[in-house]
Amino acid sequence: DSGVYLVIDFHEFPFLYDSMMIIGGSTPEFELFDHVNAYLWLNQTGAFLDKALKGHDADLSIPAIVNYDDGGAGYANAFYSPVDLDGPGGYDPGYFVFGDFDNLTGDVMDDMSRDPTIVAHEYTHGMVDKEGVPWGDGDLDTPSRAVNEAVADFGSASMFNDPRIGPAFMNHSA
Questions:
Q1: Pair 93, 83: CB distance under 8 Å
Q2: In sequence order, what are the beta bridge partners of 100?
């Protein structure tokens, strides 16, 4: 079975973002969908890879931060980081971040967690890291980073039987 992922709003971890200021404490209803959607697709991707790879260890508890907007500046990206979010004894090392820039556009669809192919792509990055494959830890325009991106694209494309990564997001933003 795939692991259970804790999906949290970035407002819950203010110490991660120096430029962020929290006003209020509630999450708008339309952003709660992003939490559920990220949770669903992280777990579905884990189940897919369990079946496809016959025994990869997806039984992990890795935080996923959704609705990250870089302190109000908007953040049109998503990533996996191998950094331990909460230290020893907490969650497994690593975390996912799904950016959000609907505060700039006024459209709730401008959120990286709403496209399942992006969520699956980032999950694949996490599993490559968990398996101890050292691709992509170097500078941006390097062959190892290209291979890491290709493997993550392949994981998502295989799951959805579609080579496009981010079609819902890209079609909407076009």
A1: yes
A2: 111
Q: How long a stretch of residues is the chain?
A: 174
Most confident range, picked from 8-12, 20-24, 70-74: 70-74
pTM of the model: 0.81
Two structure tokens written together for 109:
């669809």
Strands of 20-94 (E only): list them.
64-68, 78-81
| DSSP codes of every residue in 150-169 | HHHHHHHHHHHT-S-SSHHH
Q: How confident is the model at residue 59 (pLDDT cuts 50, 70, 90)?
A: low
Structure tokens at 93: 């090392």
Instruction: Return the SS3 of 94.
Output: coil
Cα distance between residue 111 and residue 102, in whole Å: 7
Q: How far is the C-alpha of 115 from the C-alpha of 109, rounded, in Å?
A: 9
What is the side-by-side order of every strand in the sheet holding 95-99? 7-9, 64-68, 95-99, 78-81
Let me know: does 67 contact 100? Beta carbons within 8 Å: yes
